[in-house]
């Protein structure tokens, strides 16, 4: 699980992306816990979309856990809620088809 807190923006999204992609490259089931995120811009959303697509391409597993309201709202604004898996708290990520 990769836990993120605070702001995910142009300054911090690259670090989040590196952590997530590193776990995906190792074939891990990756859960991105965004409960403590106070702000996310399109850079953060880009990380989520890239990770979702990478997992799908590699037959891996990626999902969000407990996304903060600001994250859920951003995902909804770009109509990506059907593409990005979101787990109820404590669930395992599904294999992405």
Brief write-up:
The protein is an alpha/beta fold. It has helices at residues 13-25, 42-58, 69-77; strands spanning 2-8, 29-40, 61-65, 86-87.
Question: Can you walk me through this structure?
Answer:
This protein is α/β, with parallel strands linked by helices and 97 residues long. The chain is 40% helix and 27% strand. It contains three helices and four strands. A four-stranded parallel β-sheet has the order 1-2-3-4. Helix 2 links the parallel strand 2 and strand 3 (61-65). Helix 1 (13-25) runs parallel beside helix 2. The protein is globular. It starts with a strand and ends in a 10-residue tail after the last strand. Mean pLDDT is 90; it is low at 93-97.
**How many separate helices?**
3
Low-confidence stretches: 93-97
- Hey, roughly how much beta strand do the residues contain? 25-35%
Broad shape: globular
Present the secondary structure layout.
Blueprint lengths: L1 E7 L4 H13 L3 E12 L1 H17 L2 E5 L3 H9 L8 E2 L10
Parallel strand pairs: 1-2, 2-3, 3-4
Features:
97 residues; alpha/beta; four-stranded parallel beta sheet; 27% strand
